[in-house]
Amino acid sequence: MKALVFSESSTLAAQVISGLKSVLDFSVAVPKDQADSVSEYGAKEVISLDGNPQMDAFGKKISELMNSYDFLFVPSTVLGREVAGYVSAALGQISVPEISKFEIVDSKCKTSSLSLGGKSIIDIISDAKVLTVAPGFADPVKVSEKSKISVMTLPDSSVSVISEEEKKGTGVNIESAKVIVSIGRGIGKKESISIVDPLLKAVHGELAGSRPVCLDYQWLSEDRQVGLSGKKVNPNVYIAVGISGQIQHIAGMRGSKIVVAINRDKSAPIFEECDYGIVGDLFQVIPKLVAAING
Amino acid sequence: MVNVIVLIKQMPDLEQIRSDPGTGKPIKNGVPTKLETLSENSIEAAVTLKEKYGGKVTAILFGNEQSSASMKRAYAMGVDDGYIITGYKESNYLFTARVLAEKIKELPHDVIILGNQSADTFSGFLSGQLSAILGEPLLGNSVSIEIEGDIVKVKRNLENKSLVISAKKPAIVSVSQEINEPRLPPVMQIMAAGRKPIHTEVPKIQPSGSVQIVSEISPKSDRKKIIFEDVDKGVSEVGKILKEATR
After folding, report:
1. Is the ipTM value over 0.90, yes or no?
2. Domains in chain B, ordered, with CATH?
3. Which domains are delineated in chain A?
4. Which of A104, A118, A170, B160 is deepest in the core (most CB within 10 A)?
């Protein structure tokens, strides 16, 4: 059967193609700046979309293209979820969100997704034609032969762009870090973050944070946010400092091999999701822990 | 003057869901329900627009007979009029969008506000679905909203960039949690909200397509869960492990 992947990110599109190309024939539609980089992953065809890259323009174009495909896969991003919703309603087809597994059983889709805010995993059998895909679906694997690229023009959008600003990142890629020290609300204030510097050095770690620290208080840049709405990480060691362990955070660090938690609240949910926990004030625990590692 | 429709939902209090140790399934019976997180931000955004420009806020909740507590909360926060549509079907997102769109078509409006991605399913489908069905532009994942004459303008937050975008009314605006801090209504307003009538209706259409949940289990945690309450002992043990694992 034939499937189309749409994404504004060639990296995320490559995950879907690599994960499912043994069961489906893929074409992939991306904004034109992503066309070259997505052509190395074994799609039969790359459709390079040229024009004002807004949700409704993508939605209309992809809906048209879907005449030739059995399924649409869209990696889950803000834009991706909107486009998936648009196409599903425009075609009157069932959609399933945030899948981590996909198979075809008796010409129906069988998928797994997180539900109840990460408190459950549901398996669904449906007539779905439109599926959003959770990040980290599969590792992208390059193939030797490049896909052929064709260019298509996007229809007009009813949305005007007044200004656009790239987010200031720090160039950090916590998704590839082997050791992560992640800080939460318990750190108290931005000035206190330096308490973890010696720990970062001692474990050769990368600094990350929870949603409140990165988004609500902006003590760290957004590219360091671990969680459902941030990055999904899978380091060898994940040290959670002053993080209570809300389910949305756990969803971002579940792939870690060893999890260490430091929190002064003995009943914090993070202690249910760690291998080793120390109950205590992080400002006292961290210097002692650094001394123990360096000693 | 602006006419604002705000779309809200009720969900189980997720932090109170426990797993049955025998079956490994989440225990959903008896879990208290609450107004969904981003629905609160959506109400706050809608009521703020009304306070700034004058007008009216109408809330629509697709839920069931037990959803009136959430609508009362919406009233207490400043919503003027509320419709509960009963007959919500879990995981049938197309049905949800079509039912809400049918109701929205009956109500004159300048702006429809909803959460970008609900805290329980994370689907994030609804804003795009409504844009396709209603033919109204979507200004998605907004962290600020302004209305200037016929134009709605928002700041849109994407993973790697932020944009200022605009579209003609009527428009759909989905909001992100960062847009505001939802207000805590005073007791007097909570009491007044309890007496305010809620319109309750049933869907005018039937669900189409088959969506069947065949299994639901709690994610397993295979963590060791070795917890030290003695800091010195913990630091010594964990220090050794970290030294080994990060060398």
Report:
1. yes
2. 2-201 (3.40.50.620)
3. 2-153 (3.40.50.620), 174-294 (3.40.50.1220)
4. A118
